[in-house]
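Re: Re: token formats

Sure, here are both.
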Amino acid sequence: MKPIVLITGATSGIGQACARRFAAAGYNLIITGRRSNILHDLATELSATGAEVLPLTFDVRDADAACEAITSLADKWSQIDVLINNAGLALGLDKEYEGNIDEWATMIDTNIKGLLTMTRLVVPAMVARNSGHVINIGSVAGDAAYAGGNVYCATKAAVKAISDGLRIDVADSAVRVTNIKPGLVETNFSNVRFRGDDQRADNVYKGITPLTGDDIADVALYAASAPKHVQIAEVLVLATHQANGTVIVRNS
């Protein structure tokens, strides 16, 4: 039987890249997201490669919808071997005292509470089987705040703390926990952050060769493929000319 990976936020960027990488590596997939048409198109694409794919349309911010989706899984899909908590976003670069309260709620509800919900729904069965792997997609932004990043940075710092805490909680089992912390990755991340301003989003990556979703998917698959006695606890992945969350050397 092929192992099963569940990927949240699989409709774009890192999540979609992870879906393709894990399908190519011989996994069956449960892919989740808010945009049903994209999920089903991706499922059709990956099914043609020989993977079995189950698309589930829900928003991780909706705990009831997530619970209904996971608890109603047929037996063949219920043994999830790898959970990739990828769904997340940043909104705006406002000063904290000028920020949008609704946007704060969206980031907190997605990046923290959505991740916790999926962990709560999936990990108990992993512990009961004494087998499984949780891969959380954090960020270099969780290491230190940067100008305008305030709440987003806080959510990714929370992902690190949650990952570390879960690793402690499952240390008496064979369940592994990985926190992957990307730097600049060229996806639709900046388009979302800047509320659809494509020119402003493009400027984020100007003068540097950024990471791609495929680069992060490679790291996720490497962590999942490590020998069972090896736990890749945390990985910071940066573009070559990026030193940390704020030091980026760009070509003039």
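Second one below.
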Amino acid sequence: MEKKDKLLTIGQFAALHGINKKTLMWYDEIGLFRPAAINPENGYRCYSYRQSLILEIILLLRELDVSIMEIQDFMKNRSAENLKNLLDEKIENLDLQLMHLQAVRKTLCSHRQDMNTLLTMNLSEISIIEKEEHCLVTVDIDKSTSFEKEVELITAETSRYQLGRLHDASYGSMIPVDSLLTGNFDNYTKLFIEIPFLKNKKGLHTQPKGNYIKAFYKGTWEKIPQKYQEILEFAHSHNLTLSGFSYEKGINEIVIDRIEDYIVQIEIPILE
């Protein structure tokens, strides 16, 4: 007899596919996957190599969180069209899960970078850095927008872009450079949300590629105008023209208890 026609015990067949034999017993009991034969002498279940592919499809579908009922329906009506429709749905779900995991990974990398910055930063230093272009989701705010309302706005946008939680994105606030130049240091006009892997950039705010002034401010909001005065003096002394918006982002919220220890990273584009 050829190997492909050889019958295997339930233990051998389970080991071949890396599962517990109790799984095969359960699949048999619910009529999902039956053995090729029953040993007439002892009543033991026997399986053939020919059944391996079908079992692997069942195991794959279970790994994709397809319910037993869905798999039973498919097994009763096996066809190329039914399998394609089932796989189309699960691939779409899997793509969403992958996008979420990629977003979480990017967020973790962003937090790690913030921690590296905290460990090496010089709060008094103002520097020039180079940044790549970023597309940001923005929402409009003004001086009357409460903190509670800002959280609601950000939550709504992260939901609209199919991110499950706020921690799947990084976010901050924006103030026009024109406002800084006129001493209007509290004229925040937008919140920004950097959402990973945006497929459609239409209608989004573009944070331009190029050189930026970078600085840090530690403390409560009352004295942040002093830091902006320092930045403007730095730009003037280096013959730099600022443009667009100042982008502010908190970098140590996770590791502090007092607002006095809050550190804001400030980045402002330099007009080339």
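The mean pLDDT is 88. The two ends are 80 Å apart (CA to CA).
- S.
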